[in-house]
Structure prediction request, 138 residues.
Amino acid sequence: MFSVRKVSSPSLMKSLEYKLSKVEFHKLYMKIMKKILLSSATIGLLAIPLVGLAAAAANNAPNLDVMVVLQSVINWLFAILLVIAALCIIIAAYFFVTAAGNPEQTAKARTFVLYAIVGLIVAFLAKGIVALVGTIVT
Prediction:
């Protein structure tokens, strides 16, 4: 696991290995705890609107139409995908500007633009499919 020089005293060798493994254990523990904390915070922040919606729904449970809910979800996803696509294009522009003739950077920028275009296509197809299904159903 670790490369340790040969030491004449076996007890010193075990002590050194114990200290190294304890440090590594602490680093690993902190890394895992950071992931758990970040995941918990993310889930908690995402759950806050659900609590408010649940309280509102408990007071007066509306009669929701499936197409209205689906349209609302698609509108939110469409807005999020547009923001992500815009960020990808901005990142791609940064990579193009800072590439200075480096083919790896240029290729990276092109993939960002490609991902942005694919994201936009998916967003527009989602809105179009929901509109088509809404037209067929009604």
